[in-house]
Amino acid sequence: MIKSTPSNQDRLYMQIPFIGRFLSKDVDNTPKLGSQKNINHNAKAIVRHLGGFAHENHLITVQTCNADGSVNKKAGIAHSGIITLDEKKRTIAFDQFSPNMHEENLKQGDLLHFSLTHEGTYCQFSCEYQKTVNTKSGYAHIVKFPPGIENTQLRDAFRVRISNATPIKISLLHTINPVIAGTVVDLSAKGVRMKLTGLIEPRPKRGEDYISCQLVLTDGYSMHSGAKLMHWIYDTKDKCTYLGIKFIDMDGANERILNRYITQLQRKEKHGVKI
């Protein structure tokens, strides 16, 4: 009996429904069992998703894949971001990977797995590597559009919007750059979206770490942790900068303060109280 070898495109489609099994333990926000999943194969929806990730300068995790399409957990992870999309050629240009994944060893047709968490949804997709090209700022990796994007709603990522009437102040301390201070737009146990007037200078870099993130909560408590910039965007209409921040290295005491506060907000929201 002759066994046929699946093509890369076949392997991509075979992989998508089961891709959650192969997530690295190092990847944050691993989907919980029973989370609602949605695999979107619509071409326009894929462009809309990818365009949104590029527009918000989103930090994206990159992993190589094994021959069967599963994620190669032994190879480690890197981070990147989308530079441009070419809808006509249906290709994506990704920024250089950090740290280096020995991408000089990548061959045309190799599979790469990309993942990120956006507004409480874990998004993942796999693409065929095409080539690496030189750019003004370094180089870019060109990959084909994915056949689909899997979205998984995270059960522990309850996100509550914060009213301007009761603002939560937030400040980010960088090792070199000036302090970034603003107000919270929405908040979850995993991170926060903040807003500040004007365009930040120097421009923030996706993936950069902050040694301290402090929130002054409306119940009189304050909490702090380390932080990582996951995405950012400057809104030309309201002339404000929005940053998506992930909490890192939060100790137990601050975690309890934050969880208690979010629980209070959930109760208020449930009873129709404006937050």
Describe this structure in words.
It contains three helices and 16 strands. Strands 1, 2, 3, 4, 5, 6, 7, 8 and 9 form a nine-stranded antiparallel β-sheet that branches. It is mainly beta and 275 residues long. It is globular. The chain has helices at 8-15, 43-55, 252-270; strands at residues 37-40, 60-64, 78-80, 82-86, 91-95, 111-118, 121-135, 138-144, 149-153, 160-161, 169-173, 180-187, 191-197, 209-216, 222-235, 240-248. It starts with 7 loop residues before the first helix and ends in a 5-residue tail after the last helix.
What's the helix and strand layout?
Blueprint: H1 8-15, E1 37-40, H2 43-55, E2 60-64, E3 78-80, E4 82-86, E5 91-95, E6 111-118, E7 121-135, E8 138-144, E9 149-153, E10 160-161, E11 169-173, E12 180-187, E13 191-197, E14 209-216, E15 222-235, E16 240-248, H3 252-270
Antiparallel strand pairs: 1-9, 2-3, 2-6, 4-5, 5-8, 6-7, 7-8, 7-9, 10-12, 11-12, 11-14, 12-13, 13-16, 14-15, 15-16
Task: Describe the structure concisely.
By secondary structure, the protein is mostly beta strands. It folds into two domains: 8-153, Pnp Oxidase, Chain A, CATH 2.30.110; 160-270, predicted glycosyltransferase like domains (Thrombin, subunit H, Beta Barrel).
